[in-house]
Amino acid sequence: MKVKIKALIVLCVLLISAYFGWKFIKNINPNPNFEVGQKLDSLNGVYVYYNGGISHIGKRNLGEDGYNIGLSYQCVEFAKRYYYQFYKHKMPDTYGNAKDFFDTDVKDGQLNIKRNLLQFSNPSISKPCVGDLLIFNGHPGNPYGHVAIVSNVNDSLVEIIQQNPGPFASSRATMELKHETTHFKLENDGVLGWLRMK
Fold it and tell me: Which CATH number fits domain 31-196: 3.90.1720.10, 3.40.190.10, 1.10.760.10, 2.40.100.10?
């Protein structure tokens, strides 16, 4: 009986240590090649900055008019900053995690009133376009989801530009695009859909 209790205590200590170790690693900068806040890339003059660990949170970035752009160096902050600076677009709902940008109650091609953008599902009747916000669902390693901007599209590939994809991941990534008779589908099960200026 005492052996089982000791084993249970050791297991609990190991699990707690692993949990806090994982939280610590996600918040530090594990990549010595970059510093937090370093410019990595840009799209139309709007910069992508390095965030360090994916859970690292910087200060809240506000526009000159007080508009909430987001937490510095997170994916949402880049997406909203790009739309704010390049399109002069302000979202009615300025808060929410990346996955919250996609409203599951909005039908394909209809207006997402929280973001004041047209919303398209994956798959959709509309092919992704350069400038669209690509919304990824959450998963166990990142329950908040992810948002990126479509930077290039051709008949079979979509390229995205992103902030905070992970300390060793690139700011650019591509995924396969399929045309299925009446719909376009991104071959990534995590993609919920895309948002577009009206």
Answer: 3.90.1720.10
